[in-house]
Amino acid sequence: VYLSSVYKIFFPVYYIIPSVESKLSFKLKKFAKMSPLHVILSLLLFSSVFGDRVILEPESRIPRGWRAIKKTSPETELELIIALKQQNMDFIEKNLLQISDPKNARYGQYLTRTELDQTTLPSTETSTRVKDWLQSNLKNGEKFEEKGAYIIAYVSTSTAESMLGCQFHNFFHLSGNSVARCSTPYTIPSEIAPHIDLIGGVSHFPKIHKRPLNPSNDERQPGLGVTPRLIRERYQVSGSGSQSTNLQAVAQFLDQFYSELDLQEFFALLFQESLGQVPTVVGNNTWYEPGTEASLDIEYIMSVGYRVPTWFYSTLGTHANQEPFLRWTVEVYQEKKIPYVISISYGDDEDSLTSTYMNRVNDEFKKLGNLGTSLLFASGDSGVGCNEGSNNFVPNFPASSPWVTAVGGTTTIGWFETGDEIVNYISGGGFSNVFSMPDYQQSAVKTYFQRAQGNLPNSTLYNSTGRAYPDVAALSAGFTIVVNLVPLPGVAGTSCAAPTFSGVVALLNDFLIGKSSPVLGFLNPWLYSTAVESPEGFFDVTNGCNFGDCPTNGFCATKGWDPATGIGSPKYDALVQILTKQRNLK
After folding, report:
1. Which one is catalytic: 297, 349, 363, 421?
2. What is the pLDDT of residues 566-585, one digit of tens each?
3. Kind and range of the H or E run holding 509
4. CA distances from 584 to 68, 103, 243, 272, 304 (A)
5. For the chain, what is the largest distance between any 2 Cα atoms, rounded to a whole number of angstroms?
6. φ, ψ for residue 152, nearest 5 deg
7. Distance, CA of 254 to CA of 318 (rounded, Å)
8. Is the pLDDT confidence value at 41 over 90?
9. 495 in active site
10. Annotated catalytic residue: which of 352, 400, 495, 569?
11. Which one, 116, 340, 377, 476, has least CB within 10 Å?
12. Residues 399-446: pLDDT tens digits?
């Protein structure tokens, strides 16, 4: 059984997945040409060297565009994010589905932080065993710290290689980005494996984003500029924050920062009502190096979600093997309070990640949902995506997670953003290849396929039974922001849509808190049921299609839910009336 596992899992990963041109990869290429008898004998020899160790992420691979240039220096300090095995995650999932279902008697009965910790934190045995293993490997000056369900270890490259049975190399991307990663899957002792889900900063490569700016060459995006005032008028947003206990946030990664000077100039130019409002920074913010992404997110969530207290999460990568998104999932629990709404414009191709990694991240999403937090992710800017080898569509994660709300993108017909909303062709959408379709959306997706018959991409290119996304949409083209004190028009992408929709959700929460009613929490079950029972709460987008880099069209909008704009964009005032009726509020 052991040899079979090694042959079926270990060998294909090393041989099929591209790796650096090392002696090991050369030997494995020769290994593939051996006869079956030679293979068995070689594996017997290999297993004696490999020892009693386990590969935690056998699917790990090096994505396209990354190339190993040199071996990482043995003295380079690395940050290993060890995700400890958590307890009772089956209960956490079941509980989340109950408290998020408007038809369930327990709807809105969120867990407290204490209840969540008592339910999910790793066992004492797990924590002790992993810390003992680390302690036995550390050298002088190396250390680790325990943070809830994670242990962060700061070790030299040589120590990490000894612990994980792999070699770190410095990988470079054509974009200029660099990162230290193992060139082959990592392993840990078999007696430790039951206590660890994965180790971050070892095999997962960051996604390199290409932000579409000034898309003037596209006839479908003729507008002169989207501003907060235009958004609030179009989405009938009459509310403003008044509850001190309410809280919204944006999360930033890959050295994205904002400048308070930019924020105040943005308010002065485009939304004077917010002048003087500033977010609370959680983490490190290098204000003199503002980025387009961070500026966009904070400027629009604070102007759409007007006067709602706001946090700016900044996850700064300070190690050669930085893994900022996973690090954020660690740090979010270090604060006494967690925002009710978090907008995140970040994602990776599903096929660049391991299922182990995605499942662990999903566990964190479920925990946040149990606390009453709404997680909204931009659905991506590559339409349906494309696998260059097979032409299959490539879903975007975390947008494809069943436990978050994915926000697609729209644009408008006509000048001055006065026409109807249509699909922004870059809007990420499709079907997960990893996660099955959740119950809350099955009826909506079934109706879509019935209505779209004859106007669908080739069914072999996507998984029609997978989790479908996006769930909702908002404007995503022609945004004007301020960066380095300079107004920048023409910003586009679903990164515009996510903070826009998030600001609307934050205001809905503000209304509910004022009525002593639970916040919305995990949105999807409520969104899909409301779209059927009270469709007047959304603008249904029925024209346009998203695209793909493959030689085929993507998915086109239809009446009701579709894989380009979900159930549509929000009508705030109508949703306030719907919630009032749904919850019998006075």
Report:
1. 297
2. 999 999 999 999 999 999 99
3. helix 494-514
4. 60, 14, 20, 35, 26
5. 78
6. -100, 120
7. 10
8. no
9. yes
10. 495
11. 116
12. 999 999 999 999 998 766 678 999 999 999 999 999 999 999 999 999
